[in-house]
Amino acid sequence: MQLLVITFAGCAVYGAYTSVVNGWLPRRTGQVLSLAFLGAWIFITVRGGWFMNVTDTARAGSWGFPLYFTAMTAAIALYVVALRAASTREGRRHLDAGVWLIATLLAVLVLSHYGGFGPLRTPEIAYPYDLLVLLAVSLAAYW
After folding, report:
1. N or C, fewer C-beta in 10 Å, the chain?
2. Residue 38 in 3-state DSSP?
3. Band of the pLDDT at 23, cuts 50, 70, 90?
């Protein structure tokens, strides 16, 4: 969970720096979109209650995993759609080429929560079926 939260927060670097330096996005647009995304991401991460938590459960008073995951997915999707709408053709090509990675990471996040190695006492997808689902996700990402 920690690594994915940090990885997705890094998407703001793409919008504010990489896409601007390469001329795929106007500087002001990249900065505004990235700051909005980063602000939303920090809010979602704090309310989610899982980040920087050393136990197998979310902090007290935090969102449950379904709401947390939905908020994460919505924030990322809206950010990518906004970046795509404001980008040049070349920028859209790069965004389109990276969507598979975002989808794969989100799928693995769900699997890591509901699978045999997740925090649930009784996993929704028990071992070894969780590994079979991971295999299917991996093959789908490959093709």
Report:
1. C
2. helix
3. very high
SS3 content of the chain, % helix, strand, coil (to 5): 70, 0, 25
> Token pair for residue 21?
């330096």
pLDDT tens readout for residues 65-95:
999 999 999 999 999 999 999 999 999 999 9
Other beta carbons within 10 angstroms of residue 80's beta carbon come to 19
Distance CA 32, CA 26 (A): 10
Assign 21 a pLDDT band (cuts: 50, 70, 90): very high
Distance of alpha carbon 78 from alpha carbon 86, whole angstroms: 12
pLDDT at position 95 is 96
Cβ contact 130:120 at 8 Å: no
First to last CA, the chain: 25
Closest by alpha carbon to 38, among 63, 5, 3? 5
Residues near 2 by beta carbon (within 8 Å), at least 6 away in sequence: 51, 52
Q: What per-residue confidence (pLDDT) applies to 143?
A: 81
Q: Using alpha carbons only, give the angle 31, 33, 39 rounded to the nearest 5 degrees.
A: 95
Judged by DSSP in three states, 66 sits in helix
